[in-house]
What we know:
Layout: E1 9-14, H1 21-36, E2 41-45, H2 52-58, E3 60-63, H3 74-81, H4 85-100, E4 105-111, H5 116-122, E5 128-132, H6 136-141, H7 145-153, E6 156-159, H8 162-172, E7 179-181, H9 197-204, E8 211-216, H10 225-236, E9 242-247, H11 252-264, E10 271-275, H12 281-286, E11 289-291, H13 301-308, E12 313-316, H14 323-326, E13 331-334, H15 339-350, H16 353-371, H17 373-390
Parallel strand pairs: 1-2, 1-4, 2-3, 4-5, 5-6, 6-7, 8-9, 8-11, 9-10, 11-12, 12-13
Amino acid sequence: MNPHEVKQGILFVGHDAARAGAQIELLHFLRWFKKNGNRPFSVLLGRGGELVGDFEELADTWSMERSRWRPDSLRTRLLVALGLERWTLRTEAAEVQRFAGRNPPALIYTNSIASARVVKVLAPKVPILTHVHELELQIRAYSTKAMSDLLSGTSQFIACSNAARENLLTQHAIPPTKVETVHESIPVADIQADRTRQQVFQDLRIPEDALLIIGSGTLSWRKGADLFIHLARAVCQQHDRAYFAWVGGGWHSDIAKFEHDTRLAGLGERVRLTGGVQKPYDYMAACDVFVLTSREDPYPLVCLEAAALEKPIICFAGAGGMPEFVEDDCGFVVPYLNIAAMADRVGSLLDASDLRRMIGMAARDKVTRRHDINVAAPRILEIIERTIAGG
């Protein structure tokens, strides 16, 4: 092939541009790909979000939310009420296909099963590579005909963890040869705090000699925000210096529930809620222990970020992919939903600064060796090119 020949491009499809794991992971890869890849690319989003500008800096980006035919618009709802839904969807499809047709792709890279509706609108005639960042609870939450079509129409899958791969094999009968695991990754060198521990403690209004335990994510049942409160109660009963902070926000009703339980549990002075933050690294760097209370989490980036900041991690067995990282050297894996066992492990770390430091260093070393974007991205690129060649 002529080295100066421009190769056919790739259309990356995401369900939205919210500040969440799968979307951030796609941005990490696209930044690497823009510097190291040799194909043009564009981005199609089902909805907008806080990160739209980040995508636009990298490539030609279109959000279906911008369309006057978007499904949540007043105009579209009115047409649906008048029985003109089919005509509306045809118009929406024409707009999306017109965007995709500007530079016909060699492959559609679907970033999460949640993007199934967007892919269905495209009606693709090129290979589909689907990067799965979900486990079964999430998949069932948006189980649709479009999702089934995506699963059956995908040429090759990338699973973000072995847990996600096993779920595809056992719950959706995907052939093993069609699913490869590439664990989530981060730009390790970029994970740095801007504020000191003292500044963060002042912001949280906790004593200078406090020992801080951090949890992170949206305030939801799946993320175990309620379990975080139970854990805080168990630990605080045994450790006077223990303070807890949840980094993340949620719906007003979820915030109200979190604050209600915290107050009635007598933890109003020991548990903080930061709300949504653009850069959680300050809080992670200031903490002593990072806990993942999720009931289901495929391979959360927040844990990799905590590891990059040399923090020990505690998680539940059977709750997703994080035990694949923690193993026996980067923290502790406790039985599923066993708050007492998690509290014991937190306590053992709070009582041993040398142990925290040793585990944190091991976590930093492992995330650098295994999960830096410069390690993972070339594997994804190889799968992309192989899928195109086989398509």
